[in-house]
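Table S2 (text version). Query chain:
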Amino acid sequence: MSLWLVGLILAAAGCRRGPAPVRQPSIDPAAAGREALALYDTDGNGVISGAELDASPPLQAALSRLDTDGDGGVSAEEVAERVRAWKAMRTGLASVRCHVTLDGRPLAGGRLLLEPEPFLGSQIKPAAGVTNAYGDVSPSVAPEDLPDPSLPGGVHFGLYRVRITKDAGGRELLPARYHAETVLGQEVSYDDPGMANNDIRFRLESRP
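Corresponding structure-token output:
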């Protein structure tokens, strides 16, 4: 084999080098379904529904995709099926763009945290970011949770509580319903309408 051909092969191999593909976090679909019911099915009827859904803003936010039988609630199998749907999308980290307004105006300097539902397991990591002057933010998992530091970041598929804070001189400007007692939830999945349009919106109000 000529030195020229050896060099060509080595160059081609070098061109293929780069960040390793981001693997999907491991979630056990059946275990996630069981854990979701253990957390939120307080009456033990096998379905998270009614006031029980209020305890999980993420389930509430994704109800139209979770509730495949149309009974208004979420079963263990419906949670498991949603996890399987994420797995079928074969994405390790997704790019997420959020837009935050307060009383109709862009919220600048707000910290947005995506906090995964605990029933999804420990491999689904929180993601965070700070809104710019236009109220836009692309949250990401922390650098230490990336498999390769050269990756641009992103968010794992999953169900998240959304907590948004805005500090001004040591005083929190936003009502507790947006952070400590958040009513905000979001599913990160390609078939979520906000994700599909690359425009997830959170419209906050300062009034009580």
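Notes on Table S2: DSSP finds seven helices and eleven strands in the chain. The helical segments are 3-15, 29-40, 51-54, 57-61, 63-66, 76-88, 193-196.
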